[in-house]
Each structure stands twice: as structure tokens, then as C-alpha cells.
Amino acid sequence: MRKLIITGKKLTDCFSDFISSQKKNLNQGLNKMRIICSLILIFSGLLLSSCSHYYYVPGAQNVPLFREKNELHISGSYGEGSETKGINIQAAFSLTDKIGIMADFMSAKGGNLSDHNYGKGNYFDGAVGYFKPLDKYGVFEIYGGIGRGDQYHEYSSFYNNQSTGYADLSFFKLYLQPSFGFTSDCFDIALSTRISRITFNILDNNISGNTDSYTNLIALSDKSHLFLEPGITIRAGWKSVKVQVQAVYSRYLNNPRLYIGEEYHISLGLYCTLGKKPR
Prior knowledge:
Elements: H1 2-49, E1 72-80, E2 84-94, E3 99-112, E4 117-134, E5 138-156, E6 163-183, E7 187-207, H2 211-220, E8 225-237, E9 241-249, E10 251-252, E11 264-274
Antiparallel strand pairs: 1-2, 1-11, 2-3, 3-4, 4-5, 5-6, 6-7, 7-8, 8-9, 8-10, 9-11
């Protein structure tokens, strides 16, 4: 009988130790889950409350595909990227049977005005280039241009919608754009690649309480920034008026981990041609 009592105590003690160890393991597991959940919530909150400020938008590319002298092309389009929306107005004229000039205007904005976290700006450029007809429908062209843009940005806190300041900046752009395409009275298609060199000038950096935004803005003016921008342009319609669809991808060459520019721009608009002889 005594042996049974002793054995029963040992079993009770073993069961108690087992329960205690399981409670300890459970508490440790719960603590780990609390830490993981807290980190997930914090990280998710930062992602949801942050808004990227892009300081460069690739915009629509002007691809005239001239084949003769005294052609005038005018186009207007609406375009969007991952954050911005805007309009593009473009014109091009063939001075000779080999030399063309062109000019572009873009106005874009992105972000949320009511949350005090947005950016807006305008951009102008002009270019001169060489074009060469190939066979009956082909065209090769290459243009070099210079442009200037102005931007205004307002920033807000990650934790609320209170403004943390604003910034004014400008930038200069040098670019080289070779293109190859096929053009007819009813249909055009072209592949183009633009290589852009951007230099920023910070006019006013009035940001407080947002160290990352302040530091990133200062870093923009430290050096020139290179972008590679391949694009495809498709136009269909009539000799004088065509509907144009264009997609441009922008690759930041300095450091792909820094997102100072939008990665794509897709636009839709009308393309008008004057002075072109029917073929």
C-alpha cells in the first residue's frame, strides 16, 4: 500500500512538472507571437501611411518619324505612372529632308492634397536631330535635347496628416533619343530609347520633423542622375489624325534601390500631321 502511495506521488509530481513546462513553453510562444505581431503592425503602418515622392517622371517621348521636308506634327496626350498623372503637349517640324526640331511640355502631379503629402510640377524641353528614311516605310532618327523642370512638394508625418514642411526644386535635363520605326498614312509603330542625365537644384528645403525626406532631398543635388528609358509608340487612324498609345519604362542607373523616379509612364492621345504628302 505504501509503495502505491509513493508511486502515486511520483506520478503526480511528474504530471505537475509536465504541466509547468508546457505552460512555460506556451508563455514563451505567446510572447514571441506578440513581438512578431507588433513588428508586423508597425511595418504595415509605415507602409500604409507613407507616400513616395518621385522627383523625376519620364513623360511621353516625342517620336515624329519624319520622311520629308516641311512636315509638322502636333500631339496631346494624357498619361499616368505609379503615382503621378499628367498631360503632355508635343510639336515637331522637319526643317529639311534630314534635320528636324521638336518641343515638349508636361504638367504632372501626384499624391494626396488633403493629406498634405503630394508633389506637382511642369517641364519644358527642346531638341534637334537627324532623320533618314529607309526604303518605303522605315525611318531612323536620333535627337538630342535639353529641358528644364520645376517642382513643388509638401510632406506629412507618417503617423498623422499634419504637414512637416515643403520644398521647391528645379532640374535640368540632357538627353539623347535614337528611334527606329515604320510609318504610313494609316499606321505607325516605333521603338525608341532615351538616355537622360538629370541635375537637381534645391531652391527651398523647408522640411522639419521628417529627417528622411530632408536628407533624401539634400542628396539629390550632390550628383547627376542617369536614366535609361526604352519606349514603344503605336499610332493608328488616318493621314492627318491618328490615335497614339505609348508606353515608356524608366530605369535609374545610379542606384536601382533608390526610388527617386517613376518606373513607367503610359499615355493615350491624338497625333496630328500637317504637310505630309500621301503615299
